[in-house]
Design brief:
four-stranded antiparallel β-sheet; 10 strands; Rossmann fold; 577 residues; six-stranded mixed β-sheet; alpha/beta; ABC transporter transmembrane region fold
């Protein structure tokens, strides 16, 4: 919570002014019952109508100051909480974008979404409410008790006898409530994950007739979240009836004791009326304190989750101690005995070694789960290798600053993000690239013909996920996006699976002529896509089972040869080429 509260530092002056205004308004609220008692006990017996009007005007003035002061202070509190929450959300989003892939895997995407939305909303509610009630409730509570002591000590003792019990009950319930709200947030993360999976995979779910199963999955987590929310809310709600019971018992005691005191001429009716009013004020103040504890229970759980992300260690921008010195290997990309596992158990890649020169093409083939995508993630340093070294132009990738490293790459995945914007902006992706550079990339990616055929061309608006384009058109735009930055290394991760053979061949030919200095890495399932690559790496369960040209692998690598024969229809055809 301390880290979160530090976001209020820029607003100390505004908060101070708001608290002063709130303080003045609260004092006016406290004066009203005292003035009423004075009028009943001291002014009315004199029979002076002018004095009664005068004190009535004073009560109206106090009421006006109280209303205006509270309204102004509440608006200022809302403004401060809004601006502070905006800063928290901004920094949280910025930190999420800087998290490493391992950290993203640890936090999980649904949890990060929940922290960025629900948890920041809880912080906004807490910061706003604490400014509204943080001054008003304690002043009303302490001020009400003080004034009642000044009015009549004997009646005040009846009230004070209930306060220790109330305080003990609130502390006990609040201590138990914070862990319960933490469980609620975890269940909320799981529900977000299921909803996210359903939304992104709705077509697959419908195609496989799994709608009923997904409804049951959602119903299960929804019931779990509802049960935990009900348990936490019910537990925290116990403070309200507890406080009402104790305070109403105290109020009854005041009425009974007051009746005897008035009968004995030891107090006055106006003081009894004032006491009842102050009891109501104290009751509302304690209820407000209770609400603050409930909000604090929620906010403290949310603040801990937000701070966990904000305080996550940054990726090292400086070369680590074990980064190897640069070597003049003459290769553009070089893997030296690289091994890696995601969880420390079960190698995703094991002892991978190969090298490829500038402007050459590397093909990577293998069954699903063989480690093809992992290989590319290690090349871009999304994950650190467990052993071995990866070099680009002889430099250990761990020694290359992240910004410089990522600018070297252009990457196109089989399915990637599209935004509800123009084709031009979706290719540019906020990089501010020259128009001619974007059009050149589109021509190479074989996207220019269908773009120029559109009535508004590059200004054509895409829907989210580009659902108004075909699968092949989307893939060509993704390839154009990857090429638009003139990358040193182009990674095509199964990004031509929706292209017909003619378009695929035209794309490969255009890459050789228009981007001759770019080293291309083709991750593919089709032999026809990689057969003309300068070097082909065949992976099987994280191990390299073949390395060489198409002709060499047809002779030496049985898995590759079987795939080629299966896809291309015959040994003679596959061997040609």
């Amino acid at each position: 919570m301390r880290r979160i509260l530090s976001y209020l530092q820029p607003y100390v002056a505004a908060m101070t002014l708001g608290l002063v205004i709130k303080f003045v308004g609260t004092i006016m609220d406290l004066l009203l019952p005292w003035i009423l008692a004075h009028v009943i006990d001291d002014v009315v017996p004199t029979g002076s109508v002018a004095a009664i009007y005068l004190w009535g005007v004073a009560m109206l003035a106090c009421s006006g100051v109280a209303v205006v002061g509270n309204v102004v202070a509440n608006r200022m509190a809302s403004r401060v909480s809004r601006d502070a929450t905006r800063l928290i959300r901004r920094d949280l989003f910025a930190k999420i974008t800087r998290l490493s892939s391992r950290q993203m895997d640890a936090f999980t995407t649904p949890s990060l979404i929940s922290r960025l939305t629900s948890d920041t909303y809880n912080m906004n509610a807490f910061l706003g409410r604490i400014q509204r009630l943080g001054v008003r409730a304690p002043i009303l509570l302490l001020g009400g008790v003080t004034v009642t002591l000044l009015l009549d000590v004997n009646l005040s003792l009846v009230l004070l006898s209930t306060l220790p019990l109330l305080a003990a009950g609130i502390v006990f319930i609040s201590r138990r409530g914070v862990p319960l709200y933490g469980l609620v947030r975890e269940a909320g993360d799981r529900m977000v994950r299921i909803v996210r999976d359903n939304v992104t995979g709705i077509r697959v779910i419908k195609a496989l007739s799994r709608t009923g199963y997904e409804k049951q999955r959602f119903a299960g987590i929804n019931e779990e979240l509802s049960a935990k929310e009900t348990r936490a809310s019910s537990f925290m709600a116990a403070t309200n009836p507890l406080m009402n019971l104790l305070l109403n018992l105290g109020l009854t005691g005041v009425i009974v004791a007051g009746a005897f005191l008035v009968q004995a001429n030891r107090t006055e009716p106006g003081k009894i009326i004032a006491f009842l009013t102050y009891f109501t004020i104290i009751l509302n103040a304690l209820l407000s304190v209770n609400r603050m504890f409930v909000l604090y229970s929620q906010a403290s759980a949310s603040a801990a989750r937000i701070e966990e992300v904000l305080e996550a260690p940054e990726e090292e921008e400086t070369p680590p101690q074990d980064a190897l010195p640069a070597q003049d290997t003459g290769d553009h990309i070089r893997f030296e005995d690289v091994s890696f596992s995601y969880s420390g158990q079960g190698a995703a890649l094991s002892h991978i070694s190969f090298s490829i020169g500038h402007g050459k093409t590397l093909g990577v083939m293998g069954a699903t789960g063989s480690g093809k995508t992992t290989l590319m993630q290690l090349l871009q340093r999304f994950y650190p290798v467990d052993s071995g070294v990866i070099r680009i132009d002889g430099r250990d990738v761990r020694a290359i600053p992240a910004d410089e490293l990522h600018r070297m790459f252009g990457v196109a995945f089989q399915s990637d993000a599209f935004f509800a914007d123009t084709i031009l902006e979706n290719i540019d992706l906020g990089r501010g690239l020259p128009r001619e550079q974007i059009e050149r990339a589109a021509r190479c990616a074989q996207a220019a013909p269908f773009i120029e055929a559109l009535p508004d061309g590059y200004a054509h608006m895409l829907t989210a996920k580009a659902t108004n384009l075909s699968g092949g058109q989307r893939q060509r735009l993704l390839i154009a996006r990857a090429l638009a930055g003139n990358p040193q290394i182009l990674i095509l991760d199964d990004s031509s699976s929706a292209l017909d053979y003619r378009t695929d061949a035209a794309l490969r030919s255009a890459l050789r002529t228009m981007y001759p200095d770019t080293t291309t890495v083709l991750i593919a399932q089709r032999v026809s896509t990689v057969r003309r690559a300068d070097l082909i790496l065949v992976l099987e369960e994280g191990e390299a089972v073949g390395l060489g040209t198409h002709e060499e692998l047809m002779r030496t690598c049985e898995p590759y040869r079987e795939t080629a024969l299966l896809q291309m229809g015959g040994e003679d055809d596959a061997a040609q080429g």
